Amino acid sequence: MLSSNPIGASGMIRFAEAAKQVMGRAGDYQVDGARTALGHAYGGGSQYFSMWLVGADKPA
């Protein structure tokens, strides 16, 4: 799922993966020390774009 692009689903899966990484809940594929993650997705005929930044620390 992380390398394909079904409309809508791929963005949500990528967002969930980013959140799991910064929360330290990614199991066997956890990136050591992950505190911030950037992700992006697009859908439709390339007219829907999203980008997000998630982090483990509270904003200052």
Can you offer a commentary on this structure?
This protein starts with 8 loop residues before the first helix and ends in a 5-residue tail after the last strand. It has 1 helix and 2 strands, in the order αββ. It has one helix at residues 9-23, and strands at 36-43, 48-55. With 60 residues, it is of the alpha+beta class. Strands 1-2 form a two-stranded antiparallel sheet.
Brief descriptors of the model:
about 60 residues; alpha+beta; two-stranded antiparallel ribbon
Radius of gyration: 13 Å
Count of helices?
Answer: 1
Distance between the termini: 34 Å
Give me the side-by-side strand order of the main sheet.
1-2
Q: What is the beta-strand fraction?
A: 25-35%
Q: What is the overall pLDDT average?
A: 84
String of helices and strands: HEE
Low-pLDDT runs of 5+ residues are none
User: How would you describe the shape?
Assistant: flat
The description of the largest β-sheet is: 2 strands, antiparallel
Question: What would you call the structural class?
Answer: alpha+beta
- Total beta-strand segments: 2
Q: What share of the residues lie within helices? A: 25-40%
